[in-house]
UniProtKB/TrEMBL annotation:
Alphabetized Pfam families for the sequence: DUF1811
Source organism (scientific name): Oceanobacillus chungangensis
InterPro entries: YfhH, YfhH-like
Protein name from the UniProt record: DUF1811 domain-containing protein
Lineage: Bacteria, Bacillati, Bacillota, Bacilli, Bacillales
Domain of life of the native organism: Bacteria
Length: 110
């Protein structure tokens, strides 16, 4: 039976993150890049469910943990996903609006 991460307890989420980390490491050893990426993405989403979305504010800009040189401005938050736009080092705001799990957002930029 498949459950959604929103139905998991915190303990189940951390257990799932551990399982996904192991799967990603095994896939990496086997050279299966796409499987590594899939498991890492699932880990990021599961990790987002361990966080409080209220800690993130609309119209604020946050560091992107996995991408040095980029920040992310939140337009709105839906569940554990922040919808908004990337900003590069030059301050150029990307037109595309995208949804990122809040686990990918770092410190707020003042």
């Amino acid at each position: 039976m498949n459950y959604r991460y929103s139905d998991y307890s915190i303990e189940q989420l951390y257990r799932e993150i551990g399982v996904l980390k192991e799967k990603a490491q095994k896939a990496e050893q086997l050279g299966n890049v796409s499987e590594v990426q899939i498991n890492e993405r699932k880990m990021q989403v599961a990790m987002a469910y361990t966080m409080n979305p209220e800690g993130f504010k609309v119209e604020e800009v946050y560091e992107l943990k996995m991408e040095a040189g980029y920040t992310f401005k939140i337009n709105y938050i839906n569940g554990v996903f922040a919808w908004g736009q990337r900003i590069n080092l030059l301050g150029d705001v990307f037109e595309n609006v995208e949804a990122l799990p809040i686990s990918l957002l770092g410190k707020k930029i003042s």
